[in-house]
């Protein structure tokens, strides 16, 4: 009963914040609304028992995306808001309602018995050496998807870099840190960044057997890197730096390497030879965490702004 | 006990959700930011209550990540506001 | 002993909720950014702090209790930093007499 009230409250809050964000008056208000939306969505995922998704929502939806949007908005020249015509708004509204109705029908009236691979996932989980079924899906059953997602993030980074001016290609990203807001930031960063790094690594580590994993951990590590750069503790590296580019490539290269090695050793791309699953998955995860953290940090940092 | 803790979670959520009215009304960007900061702390409190209510430690990890990233987002937003102000804009509407 | 713990937890959690409500009321009713900031920090620190305190006896394991304390410390520290930054920004907007004396 209490749970129902809580869930109802969260649902109402989610819809309310979403509705407000769509109609927000200016960019900053919209970003703030979006961050709030991410926070409430985290609560919703938690109540649904999807803790891995809740972790990702908290990390990326609540924190990283808000900052990315904020910085992107600061770059764009203020333009008058575009107000779509009434007809367009009605059509879009009808389409959204149709999608919502369709999804609700699928969730509330599934065919009996509802199709699901959950049983098979659990049955074979022991052979992957992992205890977290989500981890098993990401790293063993659908490892190719994870690999492609990592490459997509890398491509997104290239897209962000390409937004800089030609003369500045390869330079350091991000504006020079400025102050005037009380000087509390350097102390905050000095204490928080080491702690955050430990927590990030912990989240990656615990993802093997409990909710967690490399995306969430990498986002935490990326946020700490951005924090250090905002506080002026470290300077953003030039995007043409060799070490940086190796760092970015390490994850996908290791993933592809182990995948290709799986063809002669275990019969298929990204198949793991029996007995070696856990250590191989671990190696891939470490490499991916490092690369993803670098990718996400650089995406938030933005295009190069200083000539190399 | 689980019910009592869930009730506490509802109370906290209701309290900070009301604070979101400040996001609606503004009038300045600072006010909107503060309302979201309140929502963040409230969200962490709700997650902590739910974690102990259901005995699920994983929810504590979610609360930890939320606390960390919400702190990061708040600080980044405050810094962005400060930069906008220094550039001659204003933290107003 | 259990009854005492239960009583302590109840009092702490209820007090925490009261501070969250106070924070919201302050945020909605106080006249300007600086005073609202005051209300916000009370909810951040004391609201969450008291709730965490009340939850500690029922944490279930040492690891969970440790996580609760870390969460509390994190939110405290972050809240304090953001409060400093918001305060400096608000002062620049509307310098009060206190602000002027500091310069």
Low-confidence stretches of chain A: none
Report the radius of gyration of chain B as a whole number of Å.
Answer: 16 Å
What's the number of domains of chain B? Answer: 1
Going across the biggest sheet of chain A, name each strand in turn: 1-2
Q: How would you characterize the largest beta sheet of chain A?
A: 2 strands, antiparallel
Give the rounded overall mean pLDDT of chain B: 84
Tell me what the structure shows.
The complex is a heterotrimer of chains A (308), B (93) and C (103). Chain A has helices spanning 2-22, 27-47, 51-75, 86-108, 118-128, 133-141, 143-161, 185-206, 214-230, 242-266, 277-301; strands at residues 172-173, 304-306. By secondary structure, chain A is an all-alpha fold. Chain A has two domains: 1-77, no CATH class; 131-308, no CATH class. Chain B is an all-alpha fold and 93 residues long. In chain B, helix 1 (2-19) packs antiparallel against helix 3 and helix 3 packs antiparallel against helix 4. The N and C termini of chain B lie far apart (45 Å). Chain C is mainly α and 103 residues long. Chain C has one domain (2-102). Chain C has four helices and no strands. The mean pLDDT of chain C is 85. The interface between A and B is large, with 62 and 51 residues.
């Amino acid at each position: 009963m209490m749970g129902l009230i809580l869930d109802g409250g969260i649902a109402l809050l989610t819809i309310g914040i979403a509705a407000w964000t769509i109609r927000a008056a200016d960019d900053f208000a919209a970003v703030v609304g979006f961050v709030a939306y991410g926070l409430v969505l985290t609560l919703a995922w938690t109540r649904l028992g999807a803790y891995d998704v809740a972790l990702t929502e908290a990390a990326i939806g609540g924190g990283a995306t808000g900052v990315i949007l904020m910085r992107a908005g600061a770059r764009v020249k203020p333009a008058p808001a575009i107000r779509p015509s009434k007809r367009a708004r009605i059509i879009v509204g009808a389409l959204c309602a149709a999608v919502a109705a369709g999804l609700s029908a699928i969730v509330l009236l599934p065919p009996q018995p509802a199709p699901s691979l959950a049983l098979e996932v659990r049955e074979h989980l022991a052979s992957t050496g992992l205890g977290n079924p989500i981890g098993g899906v990401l790293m063993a059953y659908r490892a190719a998807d994870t690999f492609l997602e990592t490459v997509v993030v890398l491509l997104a980074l290239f897209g962000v870099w390409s937004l800089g001016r030609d003369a500045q290609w390869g330079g350091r990203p991000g504006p020079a840190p400025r102050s005037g807001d009380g000087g509390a930031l350097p102390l905050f960063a000095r204490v928080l960044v080491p702690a955050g790094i430990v927590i990030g690594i912990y989240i990656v580590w615990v993802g093997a057997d409990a909710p967690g994993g490399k995306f969430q951990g990498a986002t935490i590590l990326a946020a700490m890197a951005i924090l250090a750069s905002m506080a002026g503790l470290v300077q953003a590296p030039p995007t043409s730096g060799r070490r940086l580019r190796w760092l970015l490539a390490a994850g996908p290269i290791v993933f592809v390497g182990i995948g290709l090695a799986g063809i002669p050793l275990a019969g298929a791309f990204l198949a793991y030879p029996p007995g070696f699953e856990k250590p191989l998955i671990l190696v891939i995860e470490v490499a991916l965490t490092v690369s993803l953290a670098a990718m996400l940090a650089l995406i938030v940092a933005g295009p190069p702004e200083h000539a190399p | 006990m689980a019910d009592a803790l869930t009730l506490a979670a509802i109370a906290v959520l209701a309290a900070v959700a009301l604070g979101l009215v400040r996001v609606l009304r503004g009038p300045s960007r600072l006010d909107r930011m503060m309302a979201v900061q309140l929502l963040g702390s409230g969200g962490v409190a709700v997650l902590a209550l739910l974690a102990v209510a259901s005995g699920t430690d994983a929810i504590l990890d979610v609360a930890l990540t939320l606390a960390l990233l919400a702190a990061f987002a708040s600080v980044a937003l405050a810094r962005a506001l400060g930069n906008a102000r220094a550039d001659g804009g204003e933290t107003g509407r | 002993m259990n009854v005492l713990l239960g009583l302590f937890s109840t009092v702490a959690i209820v007090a925490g909720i009261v501070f969250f409500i106070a924070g919201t009321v302050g945020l909605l009713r106080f006249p300007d950014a600086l005073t609202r900031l005051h209300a916000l920090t009370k909810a951040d620190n004391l609201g969450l702090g008291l709730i965490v305190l009340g939850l500690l006896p029922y944490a279930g394991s040492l690891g969970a209790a440790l996580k609760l304390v870390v969460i509390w410390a994190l939110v405290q520290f972050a809240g304090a930093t953001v409060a400093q930054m918001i305060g400096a920004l608000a002062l620049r907007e509307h310098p009060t007499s206190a602000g002027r004396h500091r310069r």
